[in-house]
Each structure stands twice: as structure tokens, then as C-alpha cells.
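Subject: Sanity check before I submit

Could someone independently write out the C-alpha cells for this chain? I want to compare against mine line by line before I put it in a report. The sequence has 164 residues.
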Amino acid sequence: MDGVRLTLALTCAAVLTGCGPSLGEYEVTGMELVEDLPATISHSREPQPYLQVELASDFDLVANTSADIYAFSSLCPYGDEAQEFVFGPMVASEPPIELYDAEPAAPRGPDGKARYVVYMPFADLTGSTQICLKITQTGYFITPSESDVIQIDVNQFAAGLSDR
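---
Independent answer below. Compare away.
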């Protein structure tokens, strides 16, 4: 019986080592409606409004990941089957910087946290009050590395958006 338990424990440990590590927790620190994506983001979309969401984290996406970092959103609760692509994450600056252009590490704010921005098409958010966001790194583990779910309360920032 001990041999079976040992085999099971070793098998579980081997499987779990292939799971992607956490990409950390993020706090929404600001939200702004912008007329279009910044010029630093290469895209072929027609100009349209985007919700720029500012995030802060202890996790450094520049120093602690290698590539293939994406953000996805969905209505809360977060569901993989209803994901929408989000532009970013990018290092928050003026203009925003691609993660790989900010090496070796993301700049830190006065509070010691790394700052990022993501851009969500505003038209996709009409009528929504709770949006969930997840940052994912693909390609290196059995399961993707993911951040904790980031809940965005659109009502919290409604005063700034009411003119749309």
C-alpha cells in the first residue's frame, strides 16, 4: 500500500511541475476612455474608443516571463469559453511600452509596484458593469501561466465614462 501511495504522490508531483506558475495579483488603479489605441500598438483596426485600464502589481511581467503574454476579458465570472482579446499588457508610460522593449525589468512606481495598461474595445463593454480580466503566458508549460482574475467594476469609474 505504501508503494501505491508513493507512486501516486510522485506522479502528482511530476504533473504539477509542468503547470504554469502564477503571474501574480493585479489591482485596478485607473480607467480612462481613449479615442483609439496608442500609435505604439501595431494593428489594422479602424479607429474606435478603447477603455484604457491601468494595473499595478508586485509581479514583474518583464523580468519574470519570457514571451507570449496576452490579456483576455470576459463578463464576470471569468469564463474561458467567452474570452475577448485585449490589447496589452504593456508597461505604463507615455506612450505605453511593449513588455519586451522594457527589459530587463518593469519600472516601479513610488509604491514599489510595476505599472501596466491594457486596452479593451469600448463597444464590447456597453451595458456591462463587471468585467473580468486575466493575463496569460502560453507555450511553456502543460497548463498556461495565469494571473489571478482581475475584476473591473465599470460602475466605479462611471462618472468618467458618463459622457459616452
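---
OP: Matches mine. For the report I'm noting this point. The beta strands are 27-34, 50-57, 69-75, 84-91, 114-121, 130-137, 145-146, 150-153.
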